[in-house]
Amino acid sequence: xxxxxxxxxxxxxxxxxxxxxxxxxxxxxxxxxxxxxxxxxxxxxxxxxxxxxxxxxxxxxxxxxxxxxxxxxxxxxxxxxxxxxxxxxxxxxxxxxxxxxxxxxxxxxxxxxxxxxxxxxxxxxxxxxxxxxxxxxxxxxxxxxxxxxxxxxxxxxxxxxxxxxxxxxxxxxxxxxxxxxxxxxxxxxxxxxxxxxxxxxxxxxxxxxxxxxxxxxxxxxxxxxxxxxxxxxxxxxxxxxxxxxxxxxxxxxxxxxxxxxxxxxxxxxxxxxxxxxxxxxxxxxxxxxxxxxxxxxxxxxxxxxxxxxxxxxxxxxxxxxxxxxxxxxxxxxxxxxxxxxxxxxxxxxxxxxxxxxxxxxxxxxxxxxxxxxxxxxxxxxxxxxxxxxxxxxxxxxxxxxxxxxxxxxxxxxxxxxxxxxxxxxxxxxxxx
Length: 432
Ligand code: NI
Description:
- By secondary structure, the chain is α/β, with parallel strands linked by helices.
- The chain is about 40% helix and about 25% strand.
- Helix 5 (about 190-205) links the parallel strand 9 and strand 10 (about 210-215).
- The protein is globular, with a radius of gyration of 21 Å.
- The protein binds nickel (II) ion (NI).
- Nickel (II) ion (NI) binds near residues 64, 212, 248 and 300.
């Protein structure tokens, strides 16, 4: 199948390595972008999408989330971090079945598609639920099994590692859209032996690692008491910090932690809204950018955000650092957009595959309505993506050349069924 996005404005990579808005006609042949200058000679478009008054952007990349957690949206708010996690979210999670996670994940993918996200890095809990939901939704997904393990639960930790290996060996390579990472949960839920086992499995299966790092002050204290160092130093001792690692949050880093992450080539998935909402603070993103760290952007789960909307995240990313630094030049619109697109693709091992609108790259694209009143006038469309858009402008989304939403209609997900099943689950969990 071929699709032409005709006479459309697009967010394109500029020659100096930045981003710019250009006028083009983007031709998609099969799963890839074939041209940004119309239909190549000798070819024709099966479908033509009129691009007048529209903007084409690369499908956004959500570099840290827990998709199934949409089920816990707005059910444990305004609580201290430790109480939120150990007192509310984890006990609820214990009551969930694999089927619940599947429906929660589909709700999450509907939300992400509706707001222009094509790719996500999901840390999930039940074997084979994430892959089922992502495959049916048709999204591009990097799936990482959440792993916890230590002295108090050796058997459980070993089982989770075993299940991760079995799933990866079974599903890997089956779909061009799904890849895997390992997800050792955090420095305070994995002991050194367990982290080293996870690092060894990542080596053996050639997998990246997704992990939470330095999210709360409690974590800093706990790791200092147990191991006498910072969480970043602890992960480094266990072989977790590497070029294929995506560390989420990274709120409480010392300057030497930042230098360490930069040296190891770790990507940082910053989660501004989740960090603000849980009262954890703001990550030192300007310092990370200065140190040359690849900063990408994630929403975290809907239990702590409470949306998976990357447009809201984009806006917060730029705004909080301007405010915190008392300098409006801090984290520009272009830097925030890069974190939400090519920066995310790089972190997830998809650099040069997706994250930009360029011939040869996979056709992961979103069409936005530029005629929405808050998007007018078009004085600076690049700015409007970071400061004016809210995600409701997204009309059409394509992943790997396949349309997942057209004119706001979901084409791969049965909307009514998912909403029904989610409500049913929440009633059973006592949330509704
Ligand atoms: Ni998280």
